[in-house]
Each structure stands twice: as structure tokens, then as C-alpha cells.
Amino acid sequence: MIKHINKLKKSAKYRREHSEFIAEGLRVCYDAYLSHTRISAVVCTQKAYEKNSSQLDELMAFAEKSYFVTESVFGFITDTKSPQGVLCVIKALDKQSLFDKMKDNGKFLALDNIQDPSNLGTILRTAEAVGIDAVILSDDCCDIYSPKVVRGSMGAVFRLPYIITDNIADFLTENKNIKSYAAVVDSDARGITDISFDSPCVVCVGNEGNGLKQETVDACNERITIQMKGRAESLNASVASGIIMWEMVK
């Protein structure tokens, strides 16, 4: 089990092959339990159990298996510098059916080749907070089950519907009923405050350094931009996504 967890921590390919991922920290693990995800195993140290016995008793009763490990063993499997001594192995989540139910009447964010796990985690957390219905990810985005994404999403990865598609352009072509917007840095694009964002609609946000792929921009119905003051040329992907999502739902 320890070897298995260590491989889940390190390898996206291994996570896909075994349809499992890890969540670390008491709050995130307890969120997984409250969200009724399938927990294969709970791993914790004696020190962590003594400090949080009530919540960990619930977690352990819910999980298929539970293990106590030493501090040194937990240090081998942890992904954080200051571990809390609590970790869960969780079965991968199937969100396709949830997305299909809302596809014709929702507001979505599409992420095109987002590479920074911290950005993706923050975007998922913000999407859930403001009420975005689902997130669409191209398959070249960083792994949504990366430990940093799971931790950064603060449990949103368990609850927010999402799908992974080969590429965003094909998804838009196959779902022409969804009004699509390409978020670009272009003074000729329409400002986001001028858009009504009626459902169903999707806004596409691109890679941190290169923005949207041209094929994605071409597949969208309209180009939009965040109008900025000062000398800043662009915004961080998660910050830009947060501003866009707020405008979509307000």
C-alpha cells in the first residue's frame, strides 16, 4: 500500500491506470467523506489520530481500509512540507453523467492546456464558489488528480462536475448549441462587462504562457477580453478565470 500511494503521488499515468488518486490533509480528506466519494484507504499517524480522533473515526468507518503508519513512513508518502499526518486513497470520479444532464442549460468554463497545478486547483475552487455549473478540460491540461490540484481545490474536485475532452475546439464543434467565447488579450475583442452570458454558454481560457490555441479561438462564436488599466499586459490564468466566472454568473 505504501508503494502504491507513493506511485499515485508521483505519476499521472499510474493514477489513470489504477483509477485512484490521493488527497492529503484532514480538511480535504474529510471533504471527500462528506462528498460521498469512494475512499479506498485512510492512512494516518498516531499523533494525527490523537489530535483528530472524532473525524478520523468517521473517515475510517467509511473507508474500505485504514492504516496507521509511523511519522517516518508518512514522510515518505506525503506531498507537503508540513504534513498533518492524514491521507486518503480515493477512487477516480465519473462526472460525465452529471455534465450531460446540464449540458443544454448551464454556464461552463473550458480550460485549454492549463499546466500549473496550483492554477488549476484555484480555478476549480473558484468555479465551485461562484456557481459555475461545470468545467471542461483539454486532455493536455495538467492532471486534475495531481496532489497539488486536489489540495488547491479545497474539495471542489470532489463536487464540481467536469469532463476531459481530446481538445476544446472539437468539443465546441460538437456542441454548437452552447454559445462559446474565447478569452483573449486583444483590444479589438469585446469587453467581458458587455456580455450577457446567457445559458448555455462556455468561456475558454488558455495556457498560462501562450493563451488559447488558435484552433480553439477559431471554433468560438466570439472573442472577449478583460479590459485592463495601467501597464499590465495580461493576468495570471487563475485570476483571469476568476474575473471571467464572476461576470458569467453575476
General description of the model:
The chain has 250 residues and is of the alpha/beta class. The protein has two domains: 2-91, 60s Ribosomal Protein L30, Chain: A; 96-249, Alpha/beta knot (3-Layer(aba) Sandwich). It is built from 13 helices and eleven strands. The chain has helices at residues 2-10, 12-18, 26-34, 46-51, 53-62, 71-77, 96-102, 117-130, 147-152, 156-159, 168-174, 214-219, 237-249, and strands at residues 20-24, 39-45, 65-69, 86-91, 107-111, 134-138, 162-165, 179-183, 190-191, 201-205, 222-225. The strands form two sheets. Strands 7-6-5-10-8-11-9 form a seven-stranded parallel sheet, sandwiched between helices. Helix 3 (26-34) packs across helix 5 (53-62) and helix 8 (117-130) packs parallel to helix 13 (237-249). The longest helix has 14 residues, at 117-130. It is elongated and about 60 Å long. The model has no long low-confidence stretch (mean pLDDT 93).
Q: What fold name goes in the CATH topology slot of the largest domain?
A: Alpha/beta knot
- C-alpha Rg, in Å? 20 Å
Q: Looking across the biggest beta sheet, what order are the strands in?
A: 7-6-5-10-8-11-9
Measured distance between first and last alpha carbons: 46 Å
